[in-house]
Amino acid sequence: MKKIGIIVGSLREQSYNRMIAATVPELSLDEEAAYEYISIADLPLYNADIDVGDGPEAVRLYREAIRGADGLLIVSPEYNSGIPGVLKNALDWASTPTRSAALIHKPVGIVGATPGPKGTILSQQQIRQTLEATQAWVLPFQKMYISQVMEKVDAERGRLTDETTLKYLKRYVQTLLRWIDQSRGLQ
C-alpha cells in the first residue's frame, strides 16, 4: 500500500483546497493508498540560522512525514497570481539540508482550486518551479486546475461534489499513484 502525504497550501479552516484534499481519500481507487495530512501550520518562517541539525521540532516532524511518504499531493490556492507564502515557506524547509532534503526524488502531484475562472495556473507554475529546484519529481504532463470551486463543493460537508471534477480528480490521483511506481525506476 502506498502512503501519500497531502499538503494543503492554505491555513484557512474552510479553505476550498482543504475541501478538495479531504475528498481525495474518499475516492474509490483501483490501487490501495493510505493518505496522511502533513500540516504546515506550525512551521516557523524559514531562517538558515535555526536550520541546524534537524531544525526546530515542528520542522523535524514535517520533514519526517515527507520522508515517510511514498509520494506527495499538494493542494493549493493561488494568492495574488502566485504561490501562497505559507506553502513556499514549507517547501523551503523541505528543501534543506541540500544533499539530504526530504523533497529530493520525491514524486509529487499538484492540484489547485480557486473561485476565479482561470484555476491556479500561475501558482502551480511557481510550485512546480520550486519543486524542480529541490529535485522533487513532479508529475509530468498532467495538470489539475479547479476553477469556480465554490460551485463544485458542498461547504457544509467540506467536500468536492461536482461529478465531472470528481472524475478528473480521481484520474489525476490514479496517475500520481502510477507515477510513484514509475519514479522508483529513476533512482
Automatic annotation (TrEMBL):
Gene3D superfamilies given in the database record: 3.40.50.360
Domain of life: Bacteria
Enzyme class: oxidoreductase
EC number(s) stated in the UniProt entry for this protein: 1.-.-.-
Pfam families: FMN_red
Domain named NADPH-dependent FMN reductase-like: residues: 3-147
Entry keyword set: Oxidoreductase
GO terms assigned for molecular function: oxidoreductase activity
Family: Belongs to the azoreductase type 2 family.
PANTHER family in alphabetical order: CHROMATE REDUCTASE, NAD(P)H-DEPENDENT FMN REDUCTASE LOT6
Protein name: NADPH-dependent FMN reductase
Originating species: Cohnella hashimotonis
